Amino acid sequence: MFDVVIYSVLGAFYLFIVLSQMLVVILENRQPVKTVAWLMVLFSLPVVGLVIYFFFGRNRKREHFVSRACASQLARRSAVRFYQGGFPELPAEHKPLIKLFRRQSGSFPYPDNKIRFFISGEEMLDNLLRDIASARHHIHVEFYIIEDDKVGRLVREALAVKAREGVSVRLVYDDVGCWNVKNRFFKQMEAEGIQVAAFLPVRFPKFTSKVDFRNHRKIVVIDGIIGYVGGMNLAERYFYQVDKNQPVWRDTHVRIMGNAVGGLQRAFLSDWYVAAGQTITDQVYYPREEECRKIMACDREPYVSRNALIQIVTSIPTAPWPDIMQGMILALLRARQYCYLQSPYFMPTERMLFALQTAALAGVDVRLMIPERTDKRFLTWASRSFLHDVIRAGVRVYLYQKGFLHSKTLVCDDTLMSCGSTNIDFRSFERNFEVNAFVYDKEAALHMKKVFQEDQSHCRMLNLETWETRSIWCRVAESSIRLLSPLL
Question: What is the CATH number of domain 323-487?
Answer without folding.
Answer: 3.30.870.10
